[in-house]
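[step 3/7] fold_predict: job queued, chain A
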Amino acid sequence: NWTRVCDRVAEAAQRAGRQPDEITIVAVCKTRPAEDIEAALAAGVTDLGENRVQEATQKQPAIQGGRWHLIGQLQRNKAGKAVELFDCVQSVDSPRLAKALAQRAEGSDRTMDVLIQVNTSGVEHQAGAAPDELPELADQILLSPWLRLGGLMTIASQADETEVKRCFQSLWSCRDALVAQRRDLDLSTLSMGMSGDFELAIEQGSTMVRIGTAIFGTRS
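[step 4/7] structure written:
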């Protein structure tokens, strides 16, 4: 499965006139047992995505290696645990959460990579900051030497392909607008695309795709 996913990523990159090595594949291992994750790492997976702090707490002691990304929503009271367990938090969506992570990272003497999660679908209950909230949120992250802002993340609408594409294009626009305002920012990471839409995401400029089912198979 891993080889097939790598091939599909490479094919999508070529269609878009891009190099396959521009795209990082994060293997989403939520609900997967440790032995499946170990097998994925042995097959060549380097980056692992987890939705919940609690699940990572249970699994990580049994797993050697991998760069861990938190891709699910994070509550402020779990910021300390997230700093301990993860290399990157992709779901920073408010100045208050950014502040909590910065305090915990400083307390642990550890610099954290973070991405801002953007709600590009416009659906109210969808996680992520609204596009007009991004300047304030970016400023809050930049205040702390303990947080390293690498880019933006979004979960596209589950509607039709036109709407999915619009979400991906919206993330591009958000990135361009932020960089235009703050020229010292390096927002080279665009984390967008999952098992059902990662090829479209790559064609739309994604540099990081989060893939679970296509790597690990359907959940039993």
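[step 5/7] annotate
Residues 123 and 187 are 24 Å apart (CA to CA).
The radius of gyration is 17 Å.
exit 0
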